[in-house]
Inverse folding.
């Protein structure tokens, strides 16, 4: 199978632009949402406060017969002076038998009073399944700043490396492809935050850094083959050069991506709650990284070189008359 990526480059760009636009719209809506106030729903890692996860003990007769009414939970929280808390139902064994409450920092007595008040209304909780996390606002701000700084430094480093390894136009187009992957991953998690209440934590920053490394690695392989082909056949149209390079490295890109996705899928399904969304971010980012290396970075190079240098432009071959 041979891919003619240049002939359909408008389609690839339209697909990417549409996905990115949907993600940006989601980020704007999320920022305007009074319960989120950010492009992504931040976890306690970034904003500080207390998160309580309380799960009912279904081993007690009749304790889980009735579903949890989230309005009742909100009323109890309001009566405890926590009316501005973020409250979500969580599922266990296919049933919503637990709740997650995210609020300002609570003292031990406040937590105990809240849990007792909730137990009276919705049933007794299983102490083995309850979770209690607290993070200071200062630490959350430091984590966010450090994460963003790490991303910026990685982009600068990649740009310098690509410029020395290839040329400046290769470097800039590779960075465009990286932004493509990062924006789509962030957009997907913005949508998940709005629809399903998915939060991003410090592991999400780690996932973004990992995605940049994987994506640029794929792009370097294709760009390296393009550079070699240009040296061997300088008279060949740039569109043909890029198509040949992509097809020569296609099996390698697919095999590498599939191997990594198999591992990430295992982590996603069996790695536990802590690694659940970390692995999902990597799955989305790695898929987009493989896609952008083949369909975005390569076609952008064709577009740029055809306009900036005197490369012969590929002309379509007409079908012979019968």
């Amino acid at each position: 199978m041979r891919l003619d990526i240049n002939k359909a480059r408008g389609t690839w760009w339209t697909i990417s632009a549409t996905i990115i636009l949907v993600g940006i719209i989601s980020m704007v809506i999320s920022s305007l949402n009074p319960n989120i106030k950010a492009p992504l729903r931040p976890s306690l890692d970034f904003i500080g406060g207390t998160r309580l996860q309380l799960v009912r003990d279904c081993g007690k007769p009749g304790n889980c017969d009735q579903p949890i009414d989230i309005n009742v939970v909100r009323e109890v929280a309001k009566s405890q002076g926590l009316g501005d808390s973020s409250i979500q139902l969580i599922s266990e064994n296919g049933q919503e038998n637990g709740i997650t409450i995210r609020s300002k920092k609570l003292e031990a007595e406040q937590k105990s009073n809240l849990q007792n008040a909730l137990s009276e209304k919705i049933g007794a909780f299983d102490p083995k399944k309850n979770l209690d996390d607290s993070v200071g606002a200062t630490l959350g701000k430091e984590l966010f700043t450090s994460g963003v700084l790490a991303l910026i430094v990685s982009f600068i480093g990649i740009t310098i490396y690509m410029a020395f390894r290839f040329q400046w136009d290769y470097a800039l187009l590779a960075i465009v492809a990286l932004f493509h992957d990062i924006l789509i991953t962030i957009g997907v998690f913005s949508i998940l935050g709005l629809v399903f209440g998915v939060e991003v934590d410090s592991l999400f920053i780690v996932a973004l850094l990992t995605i940049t490394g994987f994506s640029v690695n794929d792009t370097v392989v294709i760009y390296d083959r393009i550079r070699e082909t240009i040296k061997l056949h300088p008279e060949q149209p740039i569109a043909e050069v890029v198509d040949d390079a992509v097809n020569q490295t296609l099996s390698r890109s697919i095999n590498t991506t599939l191997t990594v996705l198999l591992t990430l899928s295992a982590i996603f399904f069996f790695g536990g709650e802590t690694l659940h969304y970390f692995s999902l971010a990597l799955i989305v980012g790695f898929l987009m990284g493989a896609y952008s290396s083949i369909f975005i970075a390569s076609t952008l190079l064709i577009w740029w070189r055809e306009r900036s240098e005197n490369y012969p432009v590929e002309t379509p071959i007409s079908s012979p008359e019968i």
In short: The longest strand covers residues 95-103. The longest helix spans residues 273-308. The two ends are 26 Å apart (CA to CA).
